[in-house]
Write a structure and sequence with these properties.
The chain is α/β, with parallel strands linked by helices. The chain has 6 helices and 9 strands. The strands form 2 sheets. Strands 5-4-1-6-8-7-9 form a 7-stranded mixed β-sheet, sandwiched between helices. Strands 2-3 form a two-stranded antiparallel ribbon. It is globular and about 40 Å long. It starts with a strand and ends in a 16-residue tail after the last strand.
C-alpha cells in the first residue's frame, strides 16, 4: 500500500490580493513551510510519495529542481476540483489499496506528528481521515483510493469535503489549533 501525498499549491489567492504562496512569511515563501516539512517527511517514509500540483510555473520550477514530482494544473483558476483531478490523474500506479493525502500549501504550522497520526489510519476498511480541532474539521484529509471515482466527479470549486461528508470519517485531533490555521488575507501574516 502506497500513500500519495498531494501538496495543493495552486490556489487563486482571491482574498489575499496577490499570490500568497510566494509571499515571504517568517523568512521564506509561504508554500515552502509545508513543502520543506513534507519533503523531509517523505524522505524518511518509503511508503510515501510527494506530488506538488500548482498553476504557478515559479513554484513548479523550484520544486522540480529539488527532484519532487510536479503537476502543472492550468485549469486551477476554475476551482479546486480541477487541481484535485489534475493531481489524481498524474499519480503513477495508483491502486485501490492506496491512500491519497491532500495537504494545502497555506498551512505553515502543520506538523509531522499530525501527518503521522493521520497516516496511521491508512488501512483496509478506512475511507476518510481528517485533521480536526475539537468539532472543527480541517486539512489535511486522507482518502482511500477507492474514492477516486467520487473525487473525479467534483465540479468547479467543490473540494474533497463533499466526498468526505458522504463517508464514515475518522477525525484526528491536532494538538494545537494553530496547525489548522490557513492564511487567506495579508492581515493574517
Amino acid at each position: 500500500m502506497n500513500k500519495h501525498i498531494i501538496y495543493l499549491a495552486a490556489g487563486n489567492s482571491r482574498r489575499f490580493g496577490s499570490n500568497k504562496l510566494l509571499y515571504k512569511y517568517e523568512g521564506k515563501p509561504l508554500f515552502r513551510h509545508g513543502l520543506d516539512m513534507l519533503t523531509d517527511f517523505c524522505h524518511n517514509r518509503p511508503d510515501c510519495a510527494l506530488t506538488v500540483v500548482s498553476q504557478y510555473p515559479e513554484i513548479l520550477e523550484q520544486v522540480k529542481a529539488e527532484g519532487v514530482r510536479v503537476v502543472y494544473s492550468p485549469d486551477s483558476p476554475k476551482g479546486i476540483s480541477y487541481t484535485i483531478k489534475a493531481a489524481i490523474q498524474a499519480l503513477p500506479n495508483l491502486r485501490e489499496e492506496d491512500f491519497i493525502l491532500f495537504v494545502v500549501a497555506d498551512q505553515p504550522y502543520l506538523t509531522r506528528h499530525t501527518l503521522e497520526k493521520i497516516l496511521s489510519y491508512a488501512r483496509s476498511g478506512v475511507q476518510t481521515v481528517s485533521a480536526a480541532y475539537g468539532e472543527r474539521p480541517g486539512n489535511p484529509v486522507l482518502f482511500s483510493a477507492r474514492l477516486v471515482p467520487e473525487l473525479m466527479k467534483l465540479q468547479g470549486d467543490e473540494g474533497g469535503r463533499k466526498v468526505l461528508q458522504k463517508q464514515e470519517c475518522i477525525y484526528v485531533q491536532v494538538e494545537n489549533e494553530h496547525e489548522l490555521f490557513d492564511i487567506d488575507t495579508p492581515f493574517m501574516l
